[in-house]
Design goal:
This protein is of the alpha/beta class. The protein contains seven helices and seven strands, in the order H-H-H-E-H-E-H-E-E-H-E-H-E-E. It has one domain: 3-Layer(aba) Sandwich (Rossmann fold). 38% of the residues lie in helices and 25% in strands.
């Protein structure tokens, strides 16, 4: 049986307030139940991180900002019924998004065995039914049904992301690349790889660092 880690009540309250405040500042509508499930996920991540080093962010409050809220910056751009999170790491942004969008089917793909094991355990513990986890390299991964969107938070440069995942994206779909600074150099070399792209600046509550979402449409032969 998988046991969900319970953090100290005072810390959990601080995390809950920080998450709720950030969600309100971002103009999102997320139920209390969904927020608490996201914090349960964070508790599991914090516990596993003590042994398996899944993320460099270890402060429990910074994890709310730099993991949960950062993952939620892409929410306004999410659409479709099948989404691939490539290079999902410990499940970011895929698991928070799956909690928020139970009607969408998510596949979380990563080549790290310890990270996919954690994601599998977290999904089981939290009873998230709309997620599948795959351990392997994306260029070798095949899916009978193509994806409406492919999202990446920390996988690779945009050109490599597009090249390695092009066989998985529906012709009418799009890539969503989550970036920090405006990716000038990365965008300079993608003209021949996609039909068009659009870059949006997004704000992350509690963090002044730059955040950008790059939406890319595939070339249609």
């Amino acid at each position: 049986m998988v046991v969900i880690t319970r953090v100290a009540p005072t810390l959990r309250l601080e995390q809950s307030r920080l998450l709720s405040s950030g969600i309100n500042e971002m103009g999102l509508v997320i139920s209390d139940e969904q927020q608490q499930k996201m914090l349960d996920y964070l508790g599991l991540l914090e516990k596993w991180n003590q042994t398996y080093n899944l993320t460099a962010v270890r402060d429990p409050l910074q994890m709310v900002t730099r993991h949960l809220l950062d993952s939620l910056t892409v929410v306004p751009y999410i659409k479709g019924t099948r989404i691939l999170d490539v290079g999902a790491g410990p499940g970011l942004p895929g698991i928070p998004l799956a909690i928020l969008f139970p009607e969408i089917q998510f596949v979380l793909l990563d080549s790290s065995g310890k990270k996919t094991r954690f994601m599998t355990q977290a999904i089981a513990a939290l009873k998230i039914g709309n997620v599948a986890v795959h351990n392997g390299r994306v260029e070798a991964y095949r899916s009978e049904a193509l994806f409406d969107q492919i999202v990446s938070r920390a996988f690779a440069e945009i050109s490599l992301m597009v090249t390695l995942t092009a066989h998985l994206l529906h012709p009418a779909g799009e890539w969503l690349a989550m970036k920090g600074q405006y990716p000038t150099d990365e965008l300079a070399v993608i003209e021949d790889l996609c039909e068009s792209f659009e870059v949006s600046t997004v704000a992350l509550p509690g963090d002044d660092a730059a955040r950008h979402i790059v939406q890319l449409k595939p070339k249609i032969d």
